[in-house]
Amino acid sequence: MEEQSMTLPITRGLLRQGIDPGLPLEAMLRIVEAVQELLALPDNDFMWTSWRDAEQALAEVVPELARLRAGQLPERSALVRWFAPTCYLQEVSISSGWSDAYIQLAAWFDELEPRLWPAA
């Protein structure tokens, strides 16, 4: 991600500043914005996923991002699949060179999940 960091203002800012767990919906919005930015990188490798390309991957992200931007909590299952071990997002991150960023985003997701979906 080092070479691409100049083209990733959202992700780079989030990784530098971190999240505020006291504002879990806002923090999740920032995480999903970073996911969108990372999936849109031009040289991503989607070979080990069922996503054909960035367009198909982003088609899953955009509706959840819109919900978060509207202040609505997406269904837990809609987001948890992006951060499960060996999920497609992790596979893309590994094969595309941004696995360190993915690991941090996943750790934050794990921290926020019980705050946003307490009964889960």
What does this structure look like?
The chain is built from 6 helices and no strands. With 120 residues, the chain is mostly helical. The protein has one domain. Helix 2 runs antiparallel to helix 3 (54-69). The longest helix is centred in the last third of the chain and has 18 residues, at 99-116. Mean pLDDT is 93; it is low at 1-5.
Report the sheet with the most strands, covering strand number, pairing sense and barrel closure: none
User: In the residues, how many domains can be counted?
Assistant: 1
Pattern of helices and strands: HHHHHH
Helix content: 55-70%
The portion of residues forming beta strands comes to under 5%
End-to-end distance, in Å?
Answer: 33 Å
Secondary structure layout:
Blueprint: H1 9-17, H2 24-39, H3 54-69, H4 76-83, H5 88-96, H6 99-116
Helix pairs in contact: 2-3, 2-6, 4-6, 5-6
Summarize the structure.
The protein has 120 residues and is mainly alpha-helical.
Characteristic key phrases:
6 helices, 0% strand, mainly alpha
